[in-house]
Design brief:
Elements: H1 9-15, E1 22-27, H2 30-34, H3 38-55, E2 63-69, E3 76-81, E4 84-89, E5 94-99, H4 108-113
Antiparallel strand pairs: 1-3, 2-3, 4-5
Length: 114
């Protein structure tokens, strides 16, 4: 491999024009939360994380931040994920990690369906 093509992880992230992390916000309207007690809100938060793992396909180690905010008008969750994927690179004949959101959210139609 040519030395001028080798990059460190930090160079790849800093030079990248691609998404390196996604922030998702989960919430609802005030009426939805007015009907829930704190325990039910925690269940809602756990179900939101379950959606990230099961429906979007992220692994726990890809979630770098998840916070439930209860101090504003409506509760909401901020979740930051790194869309890291292990792919086989034919050029070097080995598996490599790449950051690609397309593996998790295929298109705007897919996102609407989710």
């Amino acid at each position: 491999m040519r030395s001028d093509r080798k990059k460190s992880f930090y160079q790849m992230v800093n030079d990248s024009k691609s998404v390196v992390a996604d922030e998702m916000i989960f919430t609802s309207d005030k009426d939805f939360f007015d009907k829930l007690n704190k325990e039910e809100i925690m269940i809602w938060a756990e179900e939101s994380l379950k959606f990230v793992y099961e429906d979007l396909g992220y692994k726990k180690e890809q979630v770098i931040h998840a916070t439930l905010h209860m101090d504003e008008t409506t509760p909401h969750i901020h979740i930051v994920v790194v869309p890291l994927v292990k792919k086989f690179d034919k050029r070097v004949n080995k598996e490599k990690y790449c950051i690609t959101k397309g593996e998790y959210i295929k298109s705007s139609n897919h996102l609407s369906k989710l």
